[in-house]
Specification:
Blueprint lengths: L1 E9 L10 E10 L2 E10 L8 H7 L3 H4 L5 H12 L3 E4 L2 H14 L10 E3 H8 L7 H7 L12 H15 L12 H4 L18 H14 L5
Parallel strand pairs: 1-4, 4-5
Antiparallel strand pairs: 1-2, 2-3
C-alpha cells in the first residue's frame, strides 16, 4: 500500500480570513515504511504572515518573499500524491487550505474520502487524553526534540512514527513473500509464510535434564 504523510504550514488559521499556505511537506510510505521519495517546498503566500503563525513555524515575510507561488508547484504536488492515501494530523485544517489554493488557480479540490485523519484515530483510541502530535510522541516515546518549530517535513517524520503506533503496528509492515510466490498461478490467498523448526531428539533430552536439575519450582 502506498500512502503519503502530509503536513502544511500557513500564514494563519482561517481560510475565510484569507490565510495561505507557506510550506508543504510530504513523505511517501510503502507498507508503512518511508521510501526515498519526498515532496517539499516553501511558498510565497502573497500576503503577510500573522504574528501567531510566525511563532509556530518561524517563517518571516522576508524569508518567503522569493519563494514560488502555489501555482508554480501545483502540478508536481498533485503528481506526487496522485492515487495515494493521504495521512494527515488534523486533516480538516490542511485539506481546507490545500483546496483553497487549488480553487484559486482553478483546479479540482482534493477528495476527502482519500484522507486518513490521525487526529480522529487518536480521539477514538484515547478519549479525553491529549492528542496533539507532541502529546502522541510522548505517549509512544518518540523523540521529538528536533521539533523546535512546527516545520512540515519534521512533522511528517514524526507523524509517520505516530501513525504506525496508532494503527497498532509497533514496527512497519514488511512483505516477506517473494515475487515468485506472488506471481504463481497455483498459489492463492497467501497471507504470510511460516517456517516451523522442530527440535532434535538430543535437544529434547537436554531440555528434560535442564527442567529436572536447574529449576526448583514448576513454572
Amino acid at each position: 500500500m502506498i500512502e503519503v504523510i502530509l503536513d502544511t504550514e500557513t500564514t494563519g488559521l482561517s481560510v475565510a480570513k484569507g490565510h495561505r499556505i507557506v510550506e508543504i511537506g510530504c513523505i511517501e510510505l510503502k507498507n508503512q515504511i518511508p521510501t526515498n521519495k519526498t515532496f517539499h517546498c516553501y511558498l510565497n503566500p502573497q500576503r503577510k504572515v500573522s504574528e501567531d503563525a510566525m511563532k509556530v513555524h518561524g517563517y518571516t515575510d522576508e524569508f518567503l518573499a522569493d519563494k514560488n507561488f502555489f501555482k508554480d508547484i501545483a502540478d508536481d504536488f498533485l503528481s506526487f500524491i496522485e492515487n495515494k492515501k493521504l495521512i494527515i494530523h488534523n486533516a480538516e485544517f490542511d485539506i481546507a487550505h490545500l483546496n483553497n489554493e487549488l480553487k484559486l488557480i482553478g483546479r479540482k479540490p482534493l477528495n476527502k474520502e482519500n484522507v486518513i485523519d490521525t487526529l480522529d484515530i487518536a480521539r477514538e483510541k484515547y478519549p479525553g487524553s491529549q492528542i496533539s502530535l507532541d502529546a502522541l510522541c510522548k505517549r509512544f516515546r518518540i523523540d521529538n526534540t528536533r521539533r523546535k518549530f512546527h516545520t512540515a517535513l519534521i512533522d511528517c517524520e514524526l507523524l509517520s512514527k505516530v501513525y504506525i503506533n496508532l494503527t497498532d503496528q509497533k514496527e512497519p509492515k514488511l512483505d516477506f513473500i517473494s515475487s515468485e510466490i506472488n506471481n504463481s498461478k497455483n498459489i492463492q490467498n497467501i497471507g504470510y509464510c511460516k517456517k516451523i523448526i522442530k527440535p532434535t531428539n538430543e535437544e529434547l533430552e537436554n531440555y528434560k535434564v535442564f527442567m529436572k536439575k536447574s529449576l526448583k519450582k514448576t513454572i
